[in-house]
Amino acid sequence: MAARGRFRFRPVASGRRRLAGRAGCGQRRDMAAGPRKVSVLLPTYEERHNLPLVVWLLVRAFQESGYNFEIIIIDDGSPDGTQEVAKQLEKIYGSDKILLRPREKKLGLGTAYIHGMKYATGDFIVIMDADLSHHPKFIPEFIRKQKEGNFDIVSGTRYKGNGGVHGWDLKRKLISRGANFITQVLLRPGASDLTGSFRLYRKEVLQKLMEKCVSKGYVFQIEMIVRARQLGYTIGEVPISFVDRVYGESKLGGNEIVSFLKGLLTLFATT
C-alpha cells in the first residue's frame, strides 16, 4: 500500500445546484448543470489486487474533472483480504470519500446495488466493475453526455463508435456478441450494449428500476435497460474500451451461459 503522502487528496468542487425535483417518469427536471455529487457503487469479491488501483484511478478522474464524489465499496465477504485493503483506502483518502459497506457473503449483484444505495448521498450513481475492466476515465464523459441530453441513464457501449473490447479471445467475443444480438432481436431495447455494467443513473431512476427488476446474473443488466425503456426513461451512450480483468480469473463459465439463456427467455416472456 502506498504511503499517505503520495496520494494527498485535493478538495473538489461541490458541483452545481439542481434546479428542480422529479416526481415521476413523465416529469423531467433540468439537469443541464450536471450532478451535484456522484456516488460510485463498487461491488467486490476477491479484488484485493485490483481495488487499490481502481480507487486511485477513480479519485484522479473526479479530482481532474472537479466533480464531488464518494466511492462505496460493497464487499461480499471476500476471503482474500479485500476488506482489509478497503479499510486502508479509507484511511488514505478519508472516510467521507471511501465507504466500506460489507456484507457477510455473496448475495448477488442486484442486492449489492440496493445495499450500496442505502448509503449513497449523491444525486447520480455510477455502477461499474472493480476488476479494472471499466476505466474510470470515462466517467467524466458520462457526465458530459448526461448534461448534453439531460439523460436519465448514460451507458457505456463496446459496440458503437470507437468502443471495443481488449484482452478477450475469439470465443469470449463471440459469446458476448451473440448474447447482445439475441437480446436485440428478442427485446428491441433501443440500446447498443445490453450486457455491459458500466453506467451512470439518476439516483431515483436506479431506485425505481431496482424495484421493478427480478432477474439475476448477467440478465440483470439487460432487464435494467428494458425496464428503463418501458418506464419512459431516456438513455444516452458513450463508447468505451473494455479491458479484460487485470488480476484474477473471469467469473463467466458454462453455468452462467445457461442461466443467461434461461433468464433471457423469461424476460422475453414477461415484457
TrEMBL record:
<dbReference type="GO" id="GO:0006488">
    <property type="term" value="P:dolichol-linked oligosaccharide biosynthetic process"/>
</dbReference>
<dbReference type="GO" id="GO:0046872">
    <property type="term" value="F:metal ion binding"/>
</dbReference>
<dbReference type="InterPro" id="IPR039528">
    <property type="entry name" value="DPM1-like"/>
</dbReference>
<dbReference type="InterPro" id="IPR001173">
    <property type="entry name" value="Glyco_trans_2-like"/>
</dbReference>
<dbReference type="GO" id="GO:0006506">
    <property type="term" value="P:GPI anchor biosynthetic process"/>
</dbReference>
<dbReference type="GO" id="GO:0005789">
    <property type="term" value="C:endoplasmic reticulum membrane"/>
</dbReference>
<comment type="pathway">
    <text>Protein modification; protein glycosylation.</text>
</comment>
<keyword id="KW-0460">Magnesium</keyword>
<feature type="domain" description="Glycosyltransferase 2-like">
    <location>
        <begin position="39"/>
        <end position="209"/>
    </location>
</feature>
<keyword id="KW-0256">Endoplasmic reticulum</keyword>
<dbReference type="Pfam" id="PF00535">
    <property type="entry name" value="Glycos_transf_2"/>
</dbReference>
<comment type="subunit">
    <text>Component of the dolichol-phosphate mannose (DPM) synthase complex.</text>
</comment>
<keyword id="KW-0328">Glycosyltransferase</keyword>
<keyword id="KW-0808">Transferase</keyword>
<keyword id="KW-0464">Manganese</keyword>
<keyword id="KW-0479">Metal-binding</keyword>
<comment type="similarity">
    <text>Belongs to the glycosyltransferase 2 family.</text>
</comment>
<dbReference type="GO" id="GO:0004582">
    <property type="term" value="F:dolichyl-phosphate beta-D-mannosyltransferase activity"/>
</dbReference>
<dbReference type="GO" id="GO:0035269">
    <property type="term" value="P:protein O-linked glycosylation via mannose"/>
</dbReference>
<comment type="function">
    <text>Transfers mannose from GDP-mannose to dolichol monophosphate to form dolichol phosphate mannose (Dol-P-Man) which is the mannosyl donor in pathways leading to N-glycosylation, glycosyl phosphatidylinositol membrane anchoring, and O-mannosylation of proteins; catalytic subunit of the dolichol-phosphate mannose (DPM) synthase complex.</text>
</comment>
<dbReference type="InterPro" id="IPR029044">
    <property type="entry name" value="Nucleotide-diphossugar_trans"/>
</dbReference>
<protein>
    <recommendedName>
        <fullName>Dolichol-phosphate mannosyltransferase subunit 1</fullName>
        <ecNumber>2.4.1.83</ecNumber>
    </recommendedName>
</protein>
